[in-house]
Design goal:
five-stranded mixed beta sheet; 4% helix
């Protein structure tokens, strides 16, 4: 088997929408100028006819963080192997702190489909959503 045959795409598979990604936040808003948290719930469903090794990365802007100390700005989660039509979810906490001003902040979510192990990325999808920070 040649190297090109190894990476050749199967013409019978529909790769236009390989994954279905849904994102929600509970509670929907964070508090300004104080420590508060919200849980981002990410659901990923494999729409392919083959198993897919999936991981994701959530990136937050400087005024927010993914840890209580306020130092870490991104978090990676390995979801493992998703069989065809299987759905998995990940919950990631995001935090505001005393330096977080009122406003809307864009959070970026990148989902990776890996080849054989987590070393190689075969495909990636990215999306973003808004986290609102309000004063009470």
């Amino acid at each position: 088997m040649g190297i090109l045959q190894l990476f050749k795409k199967n013409s019978n598979s529909d790769n236009s929408k390989p994954l279905l990604i849904s994102v929600s936040m509970i509670p929907y808003v964070l508090r300004a100028n104080e420590r508060s948290s919200s849980t981002v719930n990410v659901k990923i469903k494999n729409l392919l006819n083959e198993p897919a090794l999936i991981s994701l990365r959530l990136e937050v802007p400087k005024p927010l963080s993914v840890d209580y100390t306020g130092l870490i700005k991104e978090k990676e989660v390995k979801l493992g192997l998703l069989n065809p039509k299987e759905e998995k979810e990940a919950n990631i906490d995001i935090f505001s702190n005393t330096g977080t001003d009122e406003g809307e902040y864009t959070i970026k979510l990148v989902v990776f489909k890996h080849y054989k192990d987590y070393t190689f990325v075969e495909n990636q999808l990215s999306t973003s959503f808004i986290a609102r920070v309000v004063s009470h």
